[in-house]
Amino acid sequence: MTATLDVPYAVLAGIKGKWDEAADGLDGSWRRLHKTSTEGFSAEVSAAVEAFREPWVDEIKAMALQAQGNSEELVFFRGLLVLVDAAQAERVRSLLPWVHHAAGIREW
Amino acid sequence: MRTHLGIAALCLLLPLAGCGGDAEGQQKVDDVEADADAAVDGVVHDIAGALGATFTAGKRSFAICGDSYAPRGVTMRTSLSFAASELPDGEAIDAAAAALESDGWTVTRPANPAVVEGGKGELVVRVQVGSLVAVDVSSECVETSDDVARETQDRPVEDVAWTE
Amino acid sequence: MTVIPVPPYVPAFKEMESTPARALTFVTNLRAVTVGVKDVQGWAQGIAAPGWEGDTQAAHDHATTRFAVRLDTVEAALDRAVTAADRFEARLLELTSSRGAIDAERRSVNSDAATLRADVEAAGDAATPAQIEALRTRGERLVARATEVTADIDAWVVRHDDAEADFIAALARVDTVAEGEVAADDPGRVDVAALTAALRRRRDDPEALNAWWASLTLAQRQALITEHPHLVGNAAGIPAESRDDANRAALYGDLDRLGQREQDGQLTAAEERVLENARHVRDGIDRFREDRDLDTGRELAHLLVYLPGAHGGDGAVALSFGDPDRADHVSVNVPGLTSEASSTAGNLDKTFALHQAAVDAGNGKVASIYWLDYDAPSGNPLNPFDPLGQLDFGGVAITAKADEGGERFGDFIDGLRASDEGERAHLTAIGHSYGSTTVGHALQDGLPVDDAILIGSPGQPEDTAAELTGADVWVGSKDHDPVTLLGSGERGGVGALGQDPAEDDFGGVRFETGDGSLRVEDLLANHTSYFEGESLDNMAHIVADRDGEVTTQPHRGDEGGEHLTLPELVTASSGASAGEVVWEHGGEWAWERGEDAVDIAGDVVEWLLENSRWGGILGR
User: Fold this and answer.
1) Cα(C113)–Cα(C138) distance, integer angstroms
2) Chain C within 8 Å of A32 (Cβ-Cβ)?
3) What is this model's ipTM?
4) Span C374-430, pLDDT tens digits
5) Would you call C40 and A37 a contact, using CB atoms and an 8 Å cutoff?
6) Distance linking the first and last C-alpha atoms of chain C
7) Can you say whether the dihedral through the CA atoms of C192, C194, C197, C201 is positive or negative?
8) Chain A positions in Cβ-Cβ contact with residue C36 (cut-off 8 Å)
9) Strands, E, within C363-417: which ranges?
10) What does the angle CA B43 – CA B49 – CA B50 come to, to the nearest 5 degrees?
C-alpha cells in the first residue's frame, strides 16, 4: 500500500532543502562550540566553561541529526514524493509548515 | 625586431604581467625572513632581557606593498608580545634603545615616549610599552614578481618560535 | 639617631590568568554558535504552530513545532551564557586597565624607594639637618604612596576574584538542559521582536539609535546582537565595540554554516562568493589577532562593517585599529579602483602602518579605520589586457559610483560621530585614487570631518577646496603618478572625475610625497606607495593633529611645482625605461644593432599609446 499527501510539490521539495540547511547550520554550531578553547582562562573558569559546553554540544548535535533525519524522510522519485504508508505520510506532514498540518492523506 | 619590441613593451608597461624573476624575488623574501629571525634571536632577546619581559606570543605575516592590480612586492611583519616589564615605562624605553644601539641599530625616538624604533638594512624594530610590551620587526617593501608577492601574502599567519 | 622611613619593596601582584583577549575569543565563538542556532530556530518557529507554547494535541503532534520548542531551550541557555561572557570580558578589560595603572605606580614607588635608599646611603653621617629633613619628607611621602598602592592591589584582587566567581556562577545556572528549559520559560526573558522593531525605527538616525542602545540592558543588547548580527553590526550609531561583537558573530556564523554547506557540496554561486569574502575578512583579522590596545589589553582590531554579499558580490568591510569611540584621533581611509573584500590584507597593512605612525606622533589615543563599503569600479584601468579593466573615463557611471560611495561614506562617518564618547574626536577622512574622488563627493555633501587627505587623486568634484568643504584639505600627489595627472588643471588632464587638487588654484595644502621614479614600470608603484616613507609620516602627523610637523611641496602651477602632463610623462618614462630595457634585456642584441636602438624608445611609446589604456585616455 502507498500513500499520497495533498500538498503542492514545490512545498515538499522546498522543505527538504530547508531541513538540509537547518542540519548544516546546527552542524556548524555544535562543531564550533565543541572546539571552543578554554586556553587563556584560569583553571576554575575553564572547568565551568567545560561543564557548560558539553551538554549543549550534545543537545545541538542531537538536533542537527534530527534535522538531517527530517530531510531524509522526504524521498523523491521522478518528481513525486515517495510515501510507503499513511504513518509515514503523517510523519512527513508534521515536518511541513503548520499551514499544511491538516493536509489530506490518501492511501492507495 | 618587432618581436623583441613587443616583449620589451610588455615588460615596460606591466609590472602587471610580472616580468621580474620569481627566483630572485623569492630569494629576497627568504633573506628578509632570515634577517628577521636573526633579529628575533638577537636584539629582541636582548630587549626582552633588559626589560625583564616574558614572551607571550609571536606571529609573522606578509602583505603586498601595492594594490591587487600591481602588487610590487611584499612587506614582512613579525609581531611579538610580552608581559609588562618590571621597569617604569620611561626606563623600559631607555633600556630598549640601549639594547638596539649596542647591536648596531640606528635608534629613533618618536614624540610618543612609550615608543622607540631601530633601523638596520631593510628592517625596523619597533618597541611600544604599556600594559604589555609589543615588539614589531618589519621590513620595507621587498620587490618581487607579482606571482611571488601574491603567493607570499597568501601564506598563512605563522607562529614565531621563541627560545629562552 | 635620625630614622628615614623607606617603604619595603612592593612585590609584583597577581597576574591575570583569564585575559580579555581570550574572553573575547570565547564570547565571539559563543555568539557565532548562538547566531547559528537562532537562524535555525527562527526558521522553525516561523513555520511552527502559532502560539506554539500552547499544548494542543495538534501542535504537539507537529514535529516542526516540537523542534522549534526544543531549540528555543538551547537558545535561552546560550543567551544567558553570552551575556555572562560579555560581562566577564568587560570586567577583565577594566581589570587589565586598572592593573596597568596600579602596576605602573607600584613600579614607580619601588624605583623611587631604591633611589631614596641610595640617596640616604650617599648622604651618610655628613648629612645636614636640612638634607635629613628633605630625605625624611620624601620617605614619608613614599610610605604613603606604598600604603595606598598596596591597598589598591588588595582591592583589585578582590574585584578580579569576584569577576571570575560571577562568571562561573552564571554558567553553572544554565549547564543542564533542564536549566535551559527554566531559562526559556523565564517571564523576564528579553523580547527580541519588540527590540528589533525599535531598532529598525531608529536606523536612519544615528544619534537617536546611539542613545537608545545606551538605554538597553546588557542582556537586551546581546540578544539583539545574536538575533540580528548583520543589522546591529552595520547600523550607524551603534558603538564600535558592539558592532565588532555583532560582525564577528555574523562572520563566524557564516563560516560555520557555509563551510558546512560547502562540505556537503550544496553551495550556490552566491553563497560561494559570500564564503570566499568571509574567509578574506577572517584572514585579515587573524593577521592582527595578537595586536592589543596597550591600555586595555583588548584586541586592537574592531570589525565595523561586514557585508560579504554586498555590492554585487564584491563584499563590504571596515576594520578599525583601536576603538574609534574612545580615541582622540580617528582616521578613515577609503581605497580606490579594484578594491573588494579579496584585497583586504594589503589594505589593512597600509592602515596599520598609518596607525603605528600616528601613535608614534604621541598626541593621544588613535583609531585608524579601513573602510570599503562602496562599489569601487573593478578591473585594472591601466591594463589593456585585463578584460575587467574597461573603465569608461568619459562615462557617467564612473562618477555615479563615487557619488553613491560618498553617500554611504557620509552615513558611516555620521555613525562614528554619533557613537563618539567624551570629547569630540579629531577626525580625518583619507581617500586614495578613486577613493579620493569618493571622499570628495562626501565632502561636497557636508561630511563632518576636521581634515581630509586626498592621495593619488584623479579628480575632485569642485574646483576649490573651499567649495568642497570647511575641513582642512591636504593633498598627496606624486608628479610621476599618472593617475594624479588625470584631473583637470592648467596643463590639461582629462578631467572626467573633476579638478586636480594638487593645482595651486585648488587651495589645498600639498604635503611632501616626492615625485616617484620616472621609469614606466614604476608608474603604478608611484600610485600605490603613498603609505610609505615621507608621505606616510606626513599623513600620520595630519591624523594626529600635529599639523606643524607636516612638510610641504609646491603646488602644481606654483614656482617649483613644474610637472609633466600625462602624455609627456608616458613619453618621458617610456624613453627612460627603454634604454634600460635594451641594455638589461638585450645588450648584445642592441650592440649589434646600435643604429636601431635609438629608435626603440620612440617605437615603444608609440606602441603604448596605440595599445594601452593610456592611448584610450589620451584619445589616441
Assistant:
1) 9
2) yes
3) 0.94
4) 988 765 555 544 444 445 444 555 788 899 999 999 999 999 999 999 999 999 999
5) no
6) 98
7) negative
8) 25-26, 28-29, 32
9) 366-372
10) 90
